[in-house]
Amino acid sequence: MSQVPRPVPSSRPRRVRADVLTRVGWIGVLLLTSVFHFVRGAPVDGVIYAAGAVVLALDGLGWLRIPLRLRADRDTVRRRVAAGVLIAVASLTLAVTPLYSGADTAIVVGLGVLLLPVAWANRPGPAADTDRAALRRAAIAWSVLIAAGCLWEVGTFFLGRGTPGGITDFPALSDLTDPLVAWPPARAVLVACWLLGGYALVRRGWAR
């Protein structure tokens, strides 16, 4: 008597649960970071992180969809030249504007708003297993890096407030990098590396 083959259980529900848990976790991290910035007296930073949490929540609910599809074959020479010009102009402009000024903030926010539709464009189809594995490895690496930075900032904040001379003995990451970014040529190079890194990540996403 032949046996009826049993259906292989699908791994899709497990993937969906993992995606939901990951998204909820990042929303929680952004909200906690927002609260932390409000507590330490930086309401602007708190609003930015809270807005990020809202955007992730809206995207998870399916209310944020950008009808833009970008494929690797559309990454033409013209677009590469346009990206290079934008990176060069932004780097030179941020190098000459006063550090932490209104113009500085407006340029950074403007770049984010301008590039958000490109980075958030709809993918043409479901990702393959190899793509998911690569995405998982990248997510773990970025999570470890971001968590380490957050722990540093939280630790220096409480140590700086709770010990005499703590602000000098336990500087924040921004205090450590301020002498470097205060020099315009170094700031231009750092901004260029930041934007080139983002462009490389976006192009890598197009190719998948």
From TrEMBL:
Keywords: Membrane, Transmembrane, Transmembrane helix. The chain crosses the membrane at residues 20-40, 46-68, 80-100, 106-122, 134-160, 180-202. This is Uncharacterized protein.
